[in-house]
Design goal:
Layout (H helix, E strand, L loop, with lengths): L22 H9 L3 E3 L12 H11 L6 E5 L19 E9 L6 H8 L5 H10 L4 H9 L14 H20 L8 E8 L2 E8 L5 E7 L13 E7 L12 H17 L4 E8 L9 H11 L5 E3 L2 H10 L5 H7 L1 H8 L7
Parallel strand pairs: 1-3, 6-8
Antiparallel strand pairs: 2-3, 4-5, 4-9, 5-8, 6-7
Length: about 350
């Protein structure tokens, strides 16, 4: 993707800097980027050709690089929207692609040239070194990580979830060796006509994410009631892909990061309501950055789960009874007595 302008264009493709900016500004960022399309085998990552090598060089660049894009015909002036990825602007068949010599980010370069390091190790190492999650995802998508003979190009949607999942799993494994928080907590935050609420419980790690799309929103165009969907995991994690999609893993990552900062452990329940003012999907980055911001907000302290859940659900529009029916962890906490109570 190439912008038709010079100077520092970093913000156009850095979702970590977008939260809170007007939606039309974010759309403008993306619509200004022209995309060139070219088919390639997923196996090409093992021995990259000229085009893929240039793209991988671009992914290793520490700063924006002067780039020349030549298309076989005028790009289609459309905006592609997805709940998983950020919007994409005009696109057309690629004829030629050239970049100036980039200033290389040594962290990414080292992972790329280590053909004995598996992809999980590369992702976790780059995250520890402070590389932005979205930069890691781009490099992952281009088949830049993994043991040499097994490297593959990966669809963007898969790379986003794979990186969010891998990093969060690493953080969770460390978290499990730490003491739990010592109170019930309630966090809340609203942005882009979405309301987010999180509850942290002073218990071993468990996690649940539920989202509710109101009528006349992107994923609920034909009903008159909010559409609710969620999934959860116990202490030892899950073996199947979460039915709620990539937002599950981006939320899990943001919560795990917050607990890592405290060197603590907790069970987490995170809820989202999306209202009709949320006019278009912006991508998983929106949820990841929103939950990151949520977990930095001052929180309410409660002595009991019942007090915490009453406060949390009072910040949402949907009735408490519906959340209880949808949430495995809330209904379990309210209906089961723990052995520690005796």
């Amino acid at each position: 993707m190439v912008p038709p302008q010079f100077g520092d264009t970093t913000v156009l493709d850095t979702p970590e800097e977008w939260l809170g900016r007007p939606v039309d500004q974010i759309v403008s960022y993306r619509y200004s980027l022209v995309r060139g399309n070219s088919r390639s085998s997923v196996e090409e990552a093992r021995e990259p050709g000229r085009l893929l090598s240039s793209l991988q060089e671009l992914a290793m660049a520490a700063r924006p690089v002067d780039t020349e894009l030549k298309l076989t015909k005028a790009p289609r002036r459309i905006l592609t929207l997805s709940e998983d990825t950020q919007p994409y602007g005009p696109s057309g068949p690629l004829d030629g692609f050239r970049i100036d010599n980039p200033s290389v980010d040594r962290r990414v370069q080292t992972a790329y040239y280590d053909r004995d390091l598996d992809a999980t190790g590369a992702v976790d190492d780059l995250y520890r070194k402070g590389v932005l999650v979205t930069r890691i995802q781009k490099a992952f998508s281009l088949g830049m990580f993994g043991v040499g003979p097994r490297r593959k190009i990966v669809p963007t949607r898969w790379s986003i979830t794979a990186v969010d999942s891998s990093i969060s799993l690493g953080l969770i494994e460390k978290m499990k060796h730490r003491p739990s928080i010592d109170e019930y907590r309630v966090y809340s935050f609203g942005v882009y006509d979405n309301q987010y609420v999180a509850m942290l419980l002073p218990e071993p790690w468990r996690f649940e994410w539920i989202e509710a799309w109101f009528p006349n929103t992107t994923w609920n165009q034909f009903t008159t009631q909010p559409y609710m969907i969620g999934d959860y995991e116990e202490y030892f994690g899950r073996t199947k892909y979460a039915r709620v999609g990539g937002c599950y893993y981006s939320t899990r990552l943001a919560v795990a990061e917050a607990l890592e900062r405290e060197r603590r452990q907790a069970a987490a329940i995170v809820l989202r309501e999306t209202y009709p003012g949320f006019i278009m999907p912006l991508g998983v980055w929106n949820v990841r950055e929103s939950i990151r911001e949520l977990m930095k907000k001052p929180f309410e302290r409660h002595e009991t789960f019942r007090g915490a859940v009453d406060s949390a659900l009072s910040k949402l529009v949907i009735a408490k009874s519906k959340w209880m029916r949808e949430s495995v962890l809330i209904s379990r906490e309210l209906s089961q007595t723990k052995i520690s109570a005796f």
